[in-house]
Specification:
mainly alpha, 20 helices
């Protein structure tokens, strides 16, 4: 059997090499894809980690490689997601190491929304304004991250997987700090790249900001991981990133997570530090939104509410309400993928037509109605219910990170992008996973040891028979 497997692997490698040579001559882009598939089979774990990391760190719309496949615009983000799925499948061949499993009930919960989106796409779109339905249907692609996320958590366990995802938040924190220093030294000009956006005011918006939300919410509630094992250093760097990016929505989301920590941690062991951290985060948020760091600060809530950016968001909500409310069918099932709405842009005063919104939940209702909103929130609620039944020290940090992600979706469309949706899928999948007890592995151990025992029995029988012949 081993010779058959080795022969199959050799044949596969030879086939891939032949394909690489052919693709290099015809289309270099295909050659890169084939090489990526080869790497996925040789080093599946490294492929999954690297692919998912770049997907969540790259800014939306700023991918490095763009191509057209069958008339559909694709980028390396789409290719890396598919590559991570292939690597996840390859990692399961001959692997008996399972430290955690994703419950089937959670899988049903998280795939309900993309399935509903596909079903709704098969029905007529009911909207005065209609764009390409494919733009919304492509939101199914990020859910492919469920497969590599489940493979990684089954290999490394829930705690290590969650810590690794949160630790990835240090990358956008570092990018924001380095980008700000480079801008002030004249080394980086205002503009947008794959890793950050630097505006003319000097604010730096790194890619993967949703990871900062998760990391900040966990640190504020006594969780980790901590940089250099120092909570003070970690908190200082996160606060510095918030000040440099000047993103009020993230600060409010972290404050919401901290508030939940204050309310939840009261009955848990070692809750004093968590409650103190939650109150500290809330106090810092209060100083921000009241303009304590300057009346002209973008964190001044009173000033921001009077700006056009707030008026823009309110105009979106009003337009979506007018487009959906009044028709029970639209309220229940939405206008369908590709539906759009019109509203007056407060910046320009002109009529603008668009299909998404800063409020994720309003965008979901526009596309698939209240039924779709329930399907979208189902995995969140399912994960929170599972966390409630655990007694781990890290439960409060996990709950606060989920609440922070839900809160940021009220004003920033992180989850309505491929990158943000992948973060959500990976976060919920890792938190919903259940550790495998040692007793669960016992049947596998017995099956492995079984043939050896039977072999010893046959050997002992043969020895007994030979002794009997000798006696005769």
């Amino acid at each position: 059997m081993r010779h058959v497997v080795a022969g199959w692997k050799t044949a596969a490698v030879m086939a891939v090499l032949v394909a690489v040579v052919y693709a290099s001559v015809s289309t270099p882009l295909y050659a890169v894809l084939v090489v990526g598939l080869l790497i996925a089979f040789v080093a599946p774990t490294a492929t999954m980690v690297t692919a998912l990391a770049w997907v969540v760190l790259c800014r939306q719309g700023e991918a490095l490689v763009h191509a057209s496949v069958g008339g559909v615009a694709v980028s390396e983000i789409d290719g890396l997601l598919l590559l991570s799925v292939v690597a996840a499948i390859a990692s399961q061949r001959g692997s008996n190491r399972v430290t955690a499993r994703v419950p089937a009930s959670f899988v049903v919960a998280i795939v309900s929304f993309p399935l509903l989106l596909l079903v709704r796409a098969a029905l007529p779109t009911i909207s005065s304004y209609q764009g390409s339905a494919l733009v919304d249907i492509r939101h199914v692609v990020p859910y492919l991250a469920l497969i590599p996320a489940a493979a990684l958590v089954s290999r490394f366990g829930r705690e290590r997987a969650v810590s690794a995802l949160a630790a990835l938040g240090y990358v956008p924190v570092g990018v924001a700090i380095i980008g700000s220093i480079g801008y002030r030294l004249g080394l980086i000009a205002p503009g947008e790249s794959a890793l950050m956006l630097v505006d003319t005011a000097g604010a730096v918006r790194p890619g993967g900001e949703l990871l900062v939300v998760i990391l900040a919410a966990r640190v504020a509630t006594g969780g980790g991981p901590l940089l250099a094992r120092s909570r003070v250093l970690t908190a200082a760097l996160i606060v510095l990133e918030l000040l440099l990016s000047q993103t009020l929505s993230i600060a409010l989301a972290v404050g919401g997570g901290a508030l939940v920590a204050v309310l939840v941690a009261g009955k848990s062991r070692g809750s004093l530090g968590r409650v103190f951290g939650g109150f500290a985060a809330l106090a810092f948020l209060g100083l921000l939104v009241t303009g304590a760091f300057g009346a002209e600060s973008r964190f001044n809530l009173a000033t921001r509410l009077s700006e056009d950016s707030a008026g823009y968001r309110f105009a979106e909500l009003a337009a979506i309400s007018d487009a959906v409310l009044g028709d029970p069918l639209l309220v229940a099932l939405g206008a369908g993928p590709g539906s759009e709405y019109a509203f007056t842009n407060p910046y320009s005063g002109l009529i603008e037509v668009k299909g998404d919104a800063h409020n994720v939940y309003a965008a979901v209702i526009l596309k698939v109605g209240v039924v779709g909103l329930v399907a979208y929130l189902w995995p969140y609620l399912s994960t929170l219910r599972r966390l409630r039944n655990r007694e781990d020290e890290d439960v409060t940090a996990a709950v606060s990170s989920i609440v922070a992600v839900l809160a940021v979706g009220l004003t920033v469309p992180f989850a309505w992008s491929t990158q943000g949706w992948v973060v959500v899928v990976v976060l919920l999948t890792t938190l919903a996973a259940e550790d495998v007890a040692s007793t669960d592995l016992e049947p596998t151990y017995r099956r492995v040891r079984g043939p050896r025992r039977s072999a010893r029995r046959r050997s002992s029988r043969g020895t007994a028979n030979s002794r009997a012949r000798g006696m005769v």
